[in-house]
Amino acid sequence: MLIEYYNNIANYLMETFGANFIFLTIIITTTTAIAYFIFISYIITKLDKRYFIRRQLSEEDGIIPPHLTSMHSNRTKLLKMAKMLVGVSFLLIGLVMLVLPGQGLITMLIGFSLLPFPGKNKMEQNILSRKSVRSSLNWIRIKANKDPFIFD
Questions:
Q1: 97 in Cβ contact with 104 (< 8 Å)
Q2: Rounded distance, CA 41 to CA 58, Å?
Q3: Which of these, 30, 24, 33, 45, lies nearest to 93 by C-alpha position?
Q4: How far is the first Cα of the chain from the last one, in angstroms, to the nearest whole number?
Q5: Distance (Å, rounded) from C-alpha 149 to C-alpha 53?
Q6: How far is CA 145 from the centre of its chain?
Q7: DSSP single-letter state for residue 145
């Protein structure tokens, strides 16, 4: 019954779109997934191993990073808007990857870290409390010969 169902879907797709379109879709999807993995791996390896701890301490103490105070206000606003746009994009891509192949939770974590909203720290800590997320992040760092993240 299940095999018949999949055969019906395959026949429908072949009749509707054709073999060339399906092959092109597979190639584009695979290339995009590989490029995405390389990009996310690059971001993860460039972060400091104490990134999640430092962030927690600076937010609790109310310390403003010095590189944000010396910038011109228009440039700061533009950078904040760009950061929010990238954060929302990563968040949406991560949500899609929860049902499609990819590192959905890690992508959502990066998206959350770029967005300013109340309760962000709790949500990040909730995602980081999952052993699979921590091990995936540290696996990428170890493969790049970097020290693993310190979470607590």
A1: yes
A2: 25
A3: 33
A4: 50
A5: 9
A6: 21
A7: T
Tally of domains within the chain: 1
Record the pTM: 0.60
DSSP H/E element including 90: helix 73-97
Q: How many CB atoms lie within 10 A of CB 52?
A: 21
- Domain holding 92, by residue range, is 2-143
pLDDT tens, per residue, the chain with 152 residues: 889 998 998 888 888 888 888 888 889 888 888 888 898 889 889 888 888 775 555 555 555 554 545 556 788 889 989 999 999 999 898 888 888 777 788 888 888 888 888 887 788 888 888 898 899 999 999 999 999 988 87
Task: Return the structure tokens found at 44.
Answer: 């993860």
